[in-house]
C-alpha cells in the first residue's frame, strides 16, 4: 500500500512553489474544489482559506452528506457568512444574536480551536463521500494567513488521514508568524505531519510595466509576491493610485460577499481616496465583528490599522473602538502585558464618563481575572470597580442606569468570590437580578440578565447549594437553550448530586450544541463509566485524546478502564503516551506500576511507585501499591511501613484491609483486628471477616487470651463461608472445620 503523507512546499515565491508542486505525485483535487486555495488574509481576513473552500464544497455537500452540513452549521456559518442563505442556522444563542449595545459576553479564545476541529470533521465526512481516494487539497500563501486559518491547518494536518485527503501547504522560505499564539500552532504540525520540499526561484516575469503593473497589483488585491508590482504601485501618483483602489473596491462591493469586508474590500478602502472616512468606517465594522466572533488576532490587526487613520477629537467613536476592542482581544488571548496601556491612554485622552466607566471596569477585571501571581491585586480591582459603579449610577436614563449598575456590580460580585466572600457575592447578584427584573421589559438585555443568573448558579455550586444551582442553570437554559456551556455546567452539578442520568443528558446536549470541545466529552465519559457503560466511556476518552493529545487525565482514565476491560496492551500505550507529556504524573506512574506488576515486572513496578512518590509524597495509592509489592516479595517490614503511610493519608477500606494482612503476617494481631473491625463495619466484606478470623485464632491461642475470641473467629468464618467467591468460601470452610476439630 502506498505511503500517503501530507506535504509542505517552501519557496520564496508562489511560482516556484507551483513548479515544485507539479513534481510531486499528488492525487487529484475533489471535483468541486478549487485547484488551489489561497490563505492570504488580505483577501478575506480570518478564515480566508476555509471560506474559499467551503463556498465551493458546501453546495455539493448538501447533496452528498446533508447531515454533516447540519451537524457543523455553526462552524460553517461562523467562518463563511456567504452561506447563510444556503445553510440554515439551527443553534443560535443569546450571545450570537445580541445586538452590539447588549453584547456583554465574549467567546473564549479556544472557540476557534473548536471550530477548527468541527471543520476537519466536516471535511472528513465529505471526503468519504467522494469515492476512491485519496484527493488533494492545496492551500497556498499560508505564511500570510490569519491565525484562524493557521490553526485550522494545524488541526487538519494532525487529524486528516492523508490516504483520504492529502493536504499540501505552501509557504515562503521564511519563519512562520510567531506573533500569534493559537491553541494549536501550525509550525509544529508542519514539521510533524508533512514531507517538506524546499524549492528556489523567483516570481514569473510580469509582461506589464509601470502603471499597468501597478493596476495588476491592485486587481489582484495586493496579493502578488512580485516585488516589482509592489514598487510600481508605490510609485504611482497618489490620485491615480487612489482611483485604482476606489474602482476595485466598487467591484468587490457589487459582489455583496460579507467576508470581503474583512479583507480585500477593507484594504482597498484604506488605500483609496477616503481612508479616514470610509476606510475607518469599515475598519471599525470589522473590529467590532471580529471581536464578537472571537477572531481576536484580527481585532488587534484592524485596531492598529484603524488607530493610524483617526484622531480622538474628530473621530471619538472610532478611536474608542480601536482602543477598547484590542484591549478586550488581548485579555481573551491572555496577553495581559499590553492591556493596561490602552486604558491608561484612554483615561489620559478622554473626559467622556462612558469611556472612563468602561476603562474602570476593564482595569478592575484585569487585576481580578487576567493578571496572575503577584500582579493580581483585589484591592486595586475593588477601587476600580467602585469607580465604575459610581459612574454608572450617574446615568440619567433609569433603565440604562440600572443595566450599567448591575453590570458593574456583577464585576464586584466576582471580586467578592475571589476574596472568599461568596455570601456577599450572592447578595449583590440577587439585588442586580431583582433590580433589572423590576425595571426592564422581559426581552431587554436578555443576554446580560442570563449571565447574572448563571453567575449566581456558579456561586451556589461553589457553596455546595446544588439544588439552588440547578434551579438557576435550568432558568438560564430556558431562555438560552442552545448555549452549550449552560448544559455543561448544570451537568457538572447534577453529577455531584448523583443524578447521573440527568447529568448524562446535559453533557450530551453540550456535545450536540457546540463545536467539539474536549471537556464535554471528558465529563460524559466519566458519567458513562459510573453508569457501567465502560465501552462508551473508553470511546469518549479516546475522542478527547484525538481532540487534545496532551489531555493527560483523559489518557489516564481511558487506560484505567482499558485495564479493567483486560486490554492491558492498549492501557499501557495510553500510560506511556501520557507519561511522554507528563513524566511526573503520580497517577499515571502508579497505574503504570499496576500494569507492570500484573505482568510480573515487580522491580519496575516498585520503581514506578517510587517515582510517583517522588512527584507527590502524599499520593496514598502509590504508597499502598508499593506496600503490596513489598508484601508479595516477602518484605513484611517494608510492606507495613508503606501501608501505614497509605492508611494515614487515605481511609479507603481496601488500604486498611491490606495493612491488616501485613500486620497479621508481622504477628501484630491486635492492630490487625482493630483495623478489620472498622473495615467490616463499613463494608461487611466477607474477606475481612475471614482475615479477622485468622488473627482472632492467633490471639485465642495465647495464654492470656480473652474468653470468646475463638467463638468470634468461628462467627467470622461462618459469615465468610457464605461468600459468593467460591475460593474465599472454601478457605473459610476449611478453617472453620479445623477450629471445630
From TrEMBL:
Ranges for the TPR repeats: 484-517, 518-551
Pfam assignment, any one: TPR_16
Keyword Disulfide bond among record annotations: no
Keyword field: Repeat, TPR repeat
InterPro entries from the UniProt entry: TPR-like_helical_dom_sf, TPR_rpt, Ycf3
Keyword Repeat: yes
Name of the protein in its database record: Tetratricopeptide repeat protein
Species annotation: Kitasatospora phosalacinea
Amino acid at each position: 500500500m502506498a505511503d500517503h503523507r501530507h506535504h509542505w512546499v517552501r519557496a520564496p515565491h508562489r511560482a516556484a512553489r507551483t513548479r515544485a508542486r507539479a513534481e510531486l505525485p499528488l492525487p487529484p483535487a475533489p471535483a468541486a474544489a478549487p485547484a488551489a486555495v489561497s490563505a492570504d488574509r488580505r483577501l478575506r481576513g480570518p478564515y480566508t482559506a476555509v471560506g474559499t473552500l467551503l463556498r465551493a464544497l458546501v453546495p455539493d455537500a448538501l447533496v452528498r452528506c446533508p447531515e454533516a452540513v447540519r451537524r457543523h452549521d455553526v462552524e460553517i456559518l461562523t467562518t463563511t457568512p456567504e452561506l447563510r442563505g444556503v445553510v440554515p442556522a439551527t443553534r443560535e444563542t443569546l450571545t450570537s444574536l445580541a445586538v452590539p449595545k447588549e453584547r456583554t459576553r465574549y467567546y473564549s479564545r479556544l472557540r476557534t480551536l473548536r471550530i477548527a476541529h468541527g471543520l476537519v470533521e466536516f471535511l472528513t465526512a465529505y471526503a468519504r463521500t467522494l469515492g476512491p481516494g485519496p484527493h488533494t487539497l492545496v492551500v497556498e500563501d499560508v505564511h500570510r494567513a490569519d491565525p484562524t486559518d493557521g490553526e485550522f491547518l494545524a488541526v487538519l494536518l494532525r487529524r486528516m488521514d492523508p490516504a483520504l485527503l492529502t493536504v499540501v501547504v505552501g509557504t515562503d522560505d521564511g519563519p512562520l508568524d510567531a506573533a500569534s499564539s493559537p491553541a494549536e500552532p501550525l509550525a509544529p504540525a508542519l514539521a510533524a505531519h508533512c514531507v517538506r520540499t524546499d524549492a528556489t526561484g523567483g516570481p514569473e516575469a510580469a509582461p506589464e510595466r509601470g502603471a499597468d503593473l501597478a493596476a495588476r497589483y491592485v486587481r489582484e488585491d495586493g496579493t502578488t509576491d512580485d516585488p516589482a508590482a509592489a514598487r510600481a504601485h508605490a510609485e504611482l501618483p497618489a490620485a491615480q493610485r487612489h482611483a485604482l483602489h476606489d474602482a476595485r473596491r466598487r467591484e468587490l462591493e457589487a459582489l455583496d460577499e460579507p467576508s470581503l469586508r474583512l479583507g480585500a474590500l477593507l484594504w482597498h478602502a484604506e488605500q483609496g481616496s477616503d481612508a479616514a472616512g470610509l476606510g475607518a468606517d469599515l475598519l471599525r465594522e470589522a473590529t467590532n465583528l471580529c471581536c464578537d466572533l472571537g477572531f481576536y488576532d484580527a481585532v488587534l490587526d484592524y485596531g492598529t490599522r484603524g488607530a493610524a487613520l483617526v484622531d480622538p477629537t474628530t473621530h471619538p467613536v472610532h478611536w474608542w473602538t480601536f482602543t477598547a476592542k484590542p484591549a478586550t482581544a488581548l485579555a481573551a488571548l491572555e496577553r495581559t502585558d499590553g492591556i493596561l496601556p490602552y486604558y491608561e491612554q484612554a483615561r489620559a485622552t478622554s473626559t467622556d464618563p462612558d469611556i472612563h466607566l468602561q476603562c474602570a471596569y476593564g482595569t478592575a477585571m484585569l487585576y481580578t481575572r487576567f493578571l496572575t501571581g503577584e500582579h493580581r491585586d483585589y484591592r486595586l480591582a475593588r477601587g476600580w470597580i467602585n469607580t465604575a459603579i459610581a459612574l454608572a449610577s450617574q446615568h440619567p436614563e433609569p433603565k440604562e442606569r440600572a443595566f450599567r449598575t448591575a453590570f458593574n456590580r456583577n464585576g464586584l460580585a466576582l471580586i467578592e468570590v475571589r476574596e472568599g466572600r461568596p455570601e456577599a457575592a450572592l447578595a449583590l447578584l440577587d439585588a442586580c437580578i431583582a433590580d433589572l427584573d423590576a425595571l426592564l421589559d422581559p426581552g431587554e438585555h436578555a443576554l446580560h440578565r442570563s449571565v447574572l443568573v448563571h453567575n449566581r448558579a456558579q456561586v451556589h455550586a461553589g457553596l455546595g447549594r446544588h439544588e439552588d444551582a440547578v434551579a438557576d442553570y435550568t432558568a438560564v437554559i430556558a431562555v438560552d437553550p442552545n448555549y452549550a456551556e449552560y448544559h455543561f455546567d448544570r451537568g457538572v452539578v447534577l453529577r455531584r448530586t448523583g443524578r447521573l442520568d440527568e447529568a448524562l443528558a446535559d453533557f450530551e446536549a453540550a456535545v450536540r450544541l457546540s463545536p467539539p470541545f474536549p471537556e464535554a466529552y471528558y465529563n460524559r465519559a466519566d458519567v458513562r463509566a459510573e453508569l457501567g457503560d465502560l465501552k462508551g466511556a473508553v470511546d469518549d476518552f479516546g475522542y478527547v485524546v484525538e481532540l487534545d493529545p496532551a489531555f493527560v487525565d483523559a489518557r489516564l482514565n481511558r487506560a484505567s478502564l482499558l485495564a479493567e476491560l483486560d486490554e492491558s496492551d492498549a492501557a499501557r500505550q495510553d500510560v506511556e503516551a501520557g507519561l511522554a507529556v507528563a513524566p511526573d504524573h503520580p497517577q499515571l506512574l502508579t497505574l503504570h506500576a499496576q500494569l507492570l506488576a500484573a505482568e510480573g515486572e515487580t522491580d519496575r513496578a516498585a520503581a514506578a511507585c517510587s517515582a510517583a512518590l517522588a512527584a507527590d509524597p502524599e499520593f496514598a495509592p502509590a504508597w499502598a501499591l508499593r506496600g503490596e509489592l513489598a508484601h508479595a516479595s516477602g518484605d513484611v517490614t517494608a510492606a507495613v511501613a508503606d501501608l501505614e503511610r497509605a492508611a494515614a493519608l487515605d481511609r479507603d477500606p481496601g488500604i486498611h484491609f491490606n495493612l491488616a494482612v501485613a500486620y497479621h503476617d508481622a504477628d501484630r494481631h491486635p492492630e490487625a483486628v482493630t483495623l478489620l473491625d472498622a473495615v467490616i463495619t463499613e463494608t461487611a466484606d466477607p474477606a475481612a471477616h475471614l482475615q479477622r478470623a485468622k488473627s482472632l485464632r492467633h490471639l485465642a491461642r495465647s495464654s492470656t487470651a480473652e474468653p470468646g475470641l475463638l467463638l468470634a473467629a468461628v462467627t467470622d468464618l461462618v459469615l465468610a463461608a457464605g461468600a459468593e467467591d467460591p475460593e474465599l468460601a472454601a478457605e473459610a470452610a476449611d478453617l472453620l472445620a479445623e477450629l471445630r476439630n
